[in-house]
Design a protein that fits this description.
The protein is mostly beta strands. The protein has no helices and eleven strands. The termini are far apart.
Length: 124
């Protein structure tokens, strides 16, 4: 079973930056897709960015040019660098992983393992 632990959330003013981290343990898959998701109050969880084992990345349109997903294989950690934050980015951010998803899509129901989430609050 994969265990995911997020960190790095917090409160920031609009235009500011935050870097989220997600450290994974307990998996032995040679190929795994990892992703970042957000869930605002009263809304569905939605994908933000994904990264494959080979380093390919994918972003949803709303964060392209502002967010960057990356990984450090030695630390079993992925990151989400968030710049130019907007109040609409306020949400709980979750890290997820799955070894069976092909491609770079972010279908919420198909990700098997999830972290506990970290809160990001952006004030205007």
């Amino acid at each position: 079973q994969v265990i995911l632990v997020e960190s790095g959330g917090g409160s920031v003013q609009a235009g500011g930056s935050l870097r989220l981290s997600c450290t994974a343990s307990g998996y032995t898959y040679s190929r795994i897709l990892m992703g970042w998701f957000l869930q605002a109050p009263g809304k569905m969880r939605e994908g933000v960015a994904s990264i494959a084992s080979d380093g390919r990345t994918h972003y949803t349109d709303s964060v392209k040019g502002r967010f960057t997903i990356s990984k450090d294989n030695a630390k079993n950690t992925i990151y989400l660098q968030m710049n130019a934050l907007k109040p609409d980015d306020t949400a709980m951010y979750y890290c997820a992983a799955d070894p069976g998803i092909k491609g770079l899509g972010l279908p919420v129901p198909l990700f098997a393992d999830w972290g506990q989430g970290t809160q990001v609050t952006v004030s205007s």
